[in-house]
């Protein structure tokens, strides 16, 4: 179980790198387009996060707070919707793009600081 959890966490960190890295690289290019790294990053975060939310630590106090997981799920679904719907558009609004980056950072902060 611990090996599975670590593999899922590894995949989760790769998804985070794709989502944030893809979004920041796109943002500094000045063209606010949803690129494949952002799209796949948002999908990987949802799938690997739901996997990580399973009781893989043997249950009890060792598991993360279910409210924390619920907050992360809601934010990740929002990010996914914001990425998936305009994925074929040439560009989205600057504010929409900043929203995706901000929600991604907030979700990482929830993961790290909510203990
Ligand atoms: C954009 C979406 C997401 C981002 C940016 C994100 C970010 C992160 C980061 C950076 C970590 C590593 C923290 C650490 O190991 O200390 C992490 C861990 C984790 N994430 Fe996510 N995550 C996202 C979505 C989700 C979703 C949807 C779930 C499930 C509902 C989830 C559940 C978890 C769990 C269970 C861990 C293990 C560490 C812990 O909570 O204590 N994540 N996440």
What would you note in describing this structure?
This protein is mainly α and 115 residues long. It has one domain (2-113). Helices cover 73% and strands 0% of the residues. The chain is built from 4 helices and no strands. Helix 3 (66-84) runs antiparallel to helix 4 (94-113). The model has no long low-confidence stretch (mean pLDDT 97). The chain binds protoporphyrin IX containing FE. Protoporphyrin IX containing FE is lined by residues 9, 12, 16, 19, 45-46, 49-50, 52-53, 64, 69, 72-73, 76, 79, 104, 107-108, 111-112. Keywords: Membrane, Transmembrane, Transmembrane helix. It comes from Paractinoplanes ovalisporus. The chain crosses the membrane at residues 6-25, 37-55, 67-85, 97-114. This is Integral membrane protein.
List cofactors, ions and other ligands.
Answer: protoporphyrin IX containing FE
Give the DSSP E fraction (strand runs of 2 or more residues).
under 5%
How much is the average pLDDT? 97
- Profile the largest sheet: none
Helix content: over 70%
How many E strands? 0
Oligomer: single chain
Count every helix, treating DSSP H or I runs of 4 or more residues as helices. 4
Secondary structural class: mainly alpha
SSE pattern, N- to C-terminal = HHHH
Q: What is the terminal-to-terminal distance?
A: 21 Å
> Are there runs of 5+ residues with pLDDT below 50, and where?
none
Instruction: Please tell me the total number of domains.
Output: 1
Overall shape? elongated
Radius of gyration: 15 Å
């Amino acid at each position: 179980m611990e090996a599975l959890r670590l593999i899922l966490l590894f995949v989760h960190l790769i998804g985070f790198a794709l989502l944030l890295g893809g979004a920041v690289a796109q943002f500094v290019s000045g063209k606010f387009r949803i690129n494949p790294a952002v799209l796949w990053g948002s999908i990987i975060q949802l799938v690997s996060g739901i996997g990580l939310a399973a009781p893989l630590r043997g249950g009890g106090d060792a598991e993360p707070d279910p409210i924390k997981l619920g907050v992360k799920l809601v934010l990740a679904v929002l990010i996914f919707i914001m990425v998936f719907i305009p994925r074929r558009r040439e560009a989205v609004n600057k504010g929409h793009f900043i929203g995706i980056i901000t929600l991604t950072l907030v979700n990482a902060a929830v993961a790290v600081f909510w203990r």
